[in-house]
Amino acid sequence: MIAVLGYAAILVALAGSLTLIFTGVTASRSEAKDPRSVRAPVLMLFGGGIAAFILLEIAILTHDFSIAYVAQNSALATPVVFLVASGWAALEGSVVLWGLLLSVFTLLVWRRVWRGDGLGLGALAVMGAVSVFWFGLMATAANPFALCTEVANGFCSASSWLPVGDAVVPPDGIGPNPLLANHLLMAVHPPLLYVGYVGFTVPFAFAISALARSEPGKVWLDRTHRWSVIAWVFLTAGILLGGWWSYEVLGWGGYWAWDPVENAALLPFLAATAFIHSAIVQQRRSMLQAWNFVLVIVTFALTIFGTFVTRSGVIASVHAFSQSAVGPALLVLLGVVVFGSLALFAVRADTVASVPRLDSLSSREGFLLLNNLLMTLFAFTVLFGTTFPLIIEAFTGREVSVGQPFFDRVAIPFGLILLLAIGFGSVAPWRVASPRIVWERSRFGINVGLAAAAASVILGVRSVLVVLVIGLAGFVIGSITHFLIHQSQRAHIGGKTWPQAVGATVGNDLGFWGGQLAHIGVALVAVAIATTSVLAVRSEVSLAQGESAVVDDYCIEYRDAFERTEPERLVQGFRVAILDRSCTNELAVLEPRLHEYPKFGQIIATPDVRVGSVEDVYVTIAGADGDAMRFSVLIFPLQWLLWFGGLTIVAGGLVALGRKVRAGRPESPAEETQSEAHV
Amino acid sequence: MSEQVRTLAWLVVPLIALVVIVVGLWPADTEREPEARAYALAASLKCPICAGESVAASQTDLAEDLRRLIATEIAAGSSDEEIRGMFVDSYGEQVLLDAPAGGLGVALWAVPVLLAVVGGFAIYGLRRKEPAATEQ
Prior knowledge:
The structure holds two protein chains of two kinds.
Chain A: H1 2-29, H2 39-61, H3 68-73, H4 80-89, H5 91-111, H6 118-139, E1 148-152, E2 155-159, H7 185-199, H8 201-212, H9 219-250, H10 260-285, H11 289-312, H12 326-347, H13 349-352, H14 364-396, H15 404-427, H16 435-458, H17 464-493, H18 498-508, H19 510-534, E3 537-543, E4 548-551, E5 554-566, E6 569-580, E7 586-590, E8 593-597, E9 602-606, E10 608-610, E11 615-625, E12 628-637, H20 639-656, H21 669-678
Helix pairs in contact in A: 1-2, 1-6, 2-4, 2-5, 4-5, 4-7, 5-6, 5-7, 6-8, 7-9, 8-9, 8-11, 9-10, 9-20, 10-11, 10-14, 11-12, 14-15, 15-17, 15-19, 16-17, 17-18, 17-19, 19-20
Chain B: H1 3-25, H2 34-43, H3 61-75, H4 80-91, H5 105-125
């Protein structure tokens, strides 16, 4: 029953999105340009998207194992949190979540379209076209409501194409992939990334609409500014949580491995970062019109590419959780997006050329352009490196691999130049930044950077790279702080107290100061990346019960072992005490564990971490030597700074959302208040 | 604080900092610890049976054995190149996660560098040709 209803919901959404394409295009070209003419398809899309998602969740929560997806991705014993998360943990469910977000965003965009708004109606038509793809996928290759038709060994092993006919109901489901049901973070990380991915559909839709209607200019940028920043914030938070999950759960002692799927999430992030920066240049200085179209198209295409890499299995990756007919479909969509958009762009090339030019390379816009160069070049290099083995194999048949060592080496120069550019760019004025002004504004930051670098040397850091990064980060943070004080000085002299003056300065330009907060976050993250990779201590100790060994500044003592049975898994844990170097004062007792999932025949070593203000002590089980256990003991200096810096970037994005942008809505007394609220 | 003291501070602070940095880092980066070397090596080798994971990251038994092998070889005095060579002999060229040196591997570096140059020129070309206007 649920299966039929769910499939019907998908068809309703599909019909709605198909209709939306035609009504949207017609309405945007009509005289009246009445948003009410697309109301029915938008509501169909929205209702269908919501219903499909809710019905799938109900099916999972009520253990309706007649539905293959439910039988294959959840089980009676699965804890409720992971049951809910099963709704998007595997391929078909993730497509449902994608469709849900797309339909919600379409409704939100529709609510902000007014009478006579051809651009908005055109954008809705584009969103309809994108929705056709996703709901079409659900109706065909990735049907979440397919019925289970065959049971082998007690579990569902085959499914029907359509949700009609006789279903075989297995007694229990297989349960979620152990890696995904191991930590709460995995329930949160994918939806965050998805909001980011799907969010970029909105600026993309407005850009295509603007191009198709020969309406360049900055209206589409102003109207999608918030969408871009929100999507970017979610993408950032999603990537950050993914790294945190990797660190807390995977047990190899890292947060980033340059895995193809990690790269696939990084690519749209880099392109989107370039886009939000170059959008500012167009909004303030009317430059880069064509470039912004290119960037938003590239960002959207990279979100599709990311999904393709994750879901097609073309590039081997630990993250590529499933392989199916969805891969070719995504490749087709990617092709249509890239070639369709570029063709449209080529046809409209004459209307998008921008006239104003750079007054000087040394200026705010010059540094924003440098950001664009760095971001797009880095994105290209990561994309090139990720696909390089495929390209080489296709042309020469040689099998090669490109991984961490290459990407690490590329990331270092990019990171260093980026920090330098952020430091100068943050304080440089628009149009022309004379050497005198740049020197006056960055002198303080340079001193802070030198002092920070010297302090790190005094504290014992002997790596040139780490000292360099600390110096540059100090320069960035010092420059921004000094600039804030400098800008607040006038208000302070005018009679305000310092906090009031700073508050007023920030409040006057939330976009700029939100960006600066994010820049400070970037500097902190850079320091943490350098310290946790270069200064990490890695060691392995083999200990019998009651024995201890000294690692770096700590004494590691193996106390005892325990076992317990949890739903779906057996837990074998080991109590390991962390003491000071003299083995007298206990600092913490950690419990690294082995989680065994009998149904999957999989054992996952889960680490335990003592989080410290200076460094993390990370213990995971490496193996057994007869009666003794081998523990990997890893020490990561300033690991917390990575998470803190990442959160600072997210906070910066949230602050920047407060920026006021005129949306270009016609001013009529009745609509004015509404339009302000919606900008 | 008087003007002279300020000026002096502006000069002295960075100078002291520079001296500290240079002196502190002078004999920098001495021989690396064997564990650090072993990790770097393991991170640069692909786990032969895993999907896109390095020997350092994988939790499979094979990766575990290979990590021990690397540690044993380092203890026995083998150089990084010798150990990598051993892996290539056993598992073929694709075990190396680093960009292949020479031949096509050059493209991996050359193309981004070329694009950087082109991008740099593109930005340079955006400049206004006539003298700049007054500053803000």
